[in-house]
Design brief:
10 helices
Length: 208
């Protein structure tokens, strides 16, 4: 992938990405083809390959950008100074509430990027996704480390990390196997409540 330097090239680059992201959301991974992008944007094949060596290079760039933006968003949301007066239950419930809503909003993209990562032979994209999840766990470990009086366990850091990764795993399965709330068997609201309760019980904190 080659980033553009000139304004005109940047406009073409942005067109390609906008079309690819719309196709990904509307039609899934199989809908993101070079031909579909060319038809949607009206640009020539030469302009596409001037920016991306291949269809795979485009998908990889899209995935890395998606996870990179997610990591930036979580870093801002879970900043320590945002939660100075919050209790552990309040932090956990807020985190899981935002995570469930984010998963619902970006379900098509998450499903597509996950499917693509699982099909990648090298496994680098799965590592990228895992890095984001572990980074979020780091933030929650830091937030709870100053509130150990609210947690009744001998190994709070490990408990918080495992609980965080369990939440991500549950929501990943929901994205893969459920089309909507009716097929998931539980509403988003109820899911937030149950995941928060399980998280708090796992780390030895009293649910509110």
């Amino acid at each position: 992938m080659r980033l553009p330097r000139q304004a005109r090239s940047r406009a073409t680059f942005d067109q390609i990405l906008a079309a690819a992201e719309a196709l990904l959301r509307d039609e899934g991974l199989q809908g993101v083809t070079v031909q579909a992008i060319l038809e949607r944007t009206g640009i020539g094949a030469g302009s596409f390959y001037a920016r991306f060596d291949s269809h795979e290079a485009l998908l990889r760039f899209m995935a890395l950008r998606f996870w990179g933006e997610a990591e930036v968003g979580w870093a801002e949301f879970l900043r320590v100074d945002h939660w100075k007066s919050a209790s552990v239950p309040a932090i956990v419930h807020a985190f899981i509430g935002v995570l469930v809503r984010w998963n619902s909003k970006y379900a098509p993209e998450l499903k597509a990027h996950l499917s693509h990562a699982m099909a990648e032979a090298e496994g680098n994209l799965l590592d990228e996704m895992a890095d984001v999840e572990n980074t979020v766990a780091d933030y929650l470990v830091d937030l709870t480390a100053t509130r150990l009086d609210e947690i009744d366990t001998e190994d709070p850091e490990d408990r918080v990390r495992l609980a965080t990764l369990q939440v991500f795993s549950t929501l990943r399965s929901r994205i893969i196997f459920a089309r909507d709330e009716s097929t998931a068997g539980i509403s988003d609201k109820a899911l937030v409540q149950e995941l928060s309760r399980a998280f708090l019980l796992h780390i030895g904190a009293r649910p509110t």
